Amino acid sequence: MKLPISLYVLTTSLLLVAVVIMVGIEVPFKWIFITTIFGQALLVYMVYRVLKDEYATTKTFDNFYEDYPIERK
Length: 73
Known about the structure:
mainly alpha; 0% strand
């Protein structure tokens, strides 16, 4: 079963936010260090998965932004 890319992004973001919270509540250094190392490894894996994802689109730079259409003259 292939997990969606957004799950990796969410998990990595939450883990690294958890490190910041752990520092704020003064968790022992050992746990902060382990969580940081795991978070960095997860970050590298997330970047790899995002770059290797087989995502295709029909949009081009001529489409500009969908939420701000530009009128052609």
